[in-house]
């Protein structure tokens, strides 16, 4: 069983969380699934891609997803994001629809969100792996405790952070956030099943940038370049 290897700026402050029984059991579970020949998404090298692209000291915004996409070629370690060659899924299409309504940003031609992550937007799923074609198959295996610890670390930062929590599952993570210091924005999930119940029209993107600017921090450039570097 191989121990999790996180980027050093996350690994050190998460040492206690990485040594818990839940995390050790999670590592054993994943090793057994891989040994059994099951297909796991995203690929193992991308499990902690969100942390690689957004170091702890750079986090200004957190967008929280539930678990990775479970279709071939979709998940690459950032919540809601897909590789450049993959068509944006319906939830991401609704995110773009709200972005256009809120800030007038034209809908991008792709679903690749690394541009946001590199600016300090932590695109974190609550559960970081999933078995192919089986949504939520890796929930309650230990990931939730580790991502709770990640959110607690962000909460403990001296600088104010914006938490954008979409859907009831994400709302539960607000228990780990001090809403007196940070901005917690809640809305329905952008899924087509719920987007019309409060996600579309929530104006979270403009509220996020207004909060950052009011605290002397640069706003997020939510425009996604059509040319992928």
From TrEMBL:
Active site: 67
The keyword Iron is annotated on this UniProt entry: no
Top-rank taxon: Bacteria
Catalyzed reactions: Hydrolyzes single-stranded DNA or mismatched double-stranded DNA and polynucleotides, releasing free uracil
Main location per the UniProt record: cytoplasm
Any Gene Ontology CC annotation: cytoplasm
Keywords from the named record: Cytoplasm, DNA damage, DNA repair, Glycosidase, Hydrolase
GO terms of biological process kind: base-excision repair, AP site formation via deaminated base removal
Any one GO MF annotation of this record: uracil DNA N-glycosylase activity
Residue ranges of every copy of the Uracil-DNA glycosylase-like domain listed in the record: 52-212
Pfam families (UniProt xref): UDG (PF03167)
Enzyme Commission number, as recorded: 3.2.2.27
Subcellular location as annotated: Cytoplasm
HAMAP family to which the protein is assigned, alphabetical: UDG
Physiological role: Excises uracil residues from the DNA which can arise as a result of misincorporation of dUMP residues by DNA polymerase or due to deamination of cytosine.
PANTHER family: URACIL-DNA GLYCOSYLASE (PTHR11264:SF0)
Family (UniProt): Belongs to the uracil-DNA glycosylase (UDG) superfamily. UNG family.
Protein's name according to its UniProt entry: Uracil-DNA glycosylase
Gene: ung
């Amino acid at each position: 069983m191989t121990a999790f290897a996180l980027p050093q700026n996350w690994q050190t402050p998460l040492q206690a969380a990485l040594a818990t029984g839940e995390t050790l059991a999670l590592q054993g579970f994943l090793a057994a699934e891989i040994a059994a020949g099951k297909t796991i998404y995203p690929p193992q090298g991308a499990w902690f891609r969100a942390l690689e692209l957004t170091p702890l000291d750079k986090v200004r915004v957190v967008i929280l997803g539930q678990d990775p996409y479970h279709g071939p070629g979709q998940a690459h370690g950032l919540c809601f994001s897909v590789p450049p060659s993959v068509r944006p899924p319906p939830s991401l299409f609704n995110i773009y629809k709200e972005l256009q309504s809120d800030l007038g940003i034209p809908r991008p031609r792709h679903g690749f969100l690394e541009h946001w992550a590199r600016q300090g937007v932590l695109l974190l799923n609550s559960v970081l792996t999933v078995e192919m074609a089986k949504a939520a198959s890796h929930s309650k295996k230990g990931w939730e405790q580790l991502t709770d610890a990640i959110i607690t670390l962000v909460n403990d930062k001296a600088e104010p952070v914006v938490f954008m929590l979409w859907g009831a599952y994400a709302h539960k993570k607000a228990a780990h956030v001090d809403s007196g210091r940070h901005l917690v924005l809640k809305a329905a999930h952008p899924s087509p099943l719920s987007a019309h119940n409060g996600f579309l029209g929530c104006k979270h993107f403009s509220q996020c940038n207004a909060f950052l600017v009011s605290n002397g921090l640069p706003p997020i450039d939510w425009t996604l370049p059509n040319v992928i570097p």
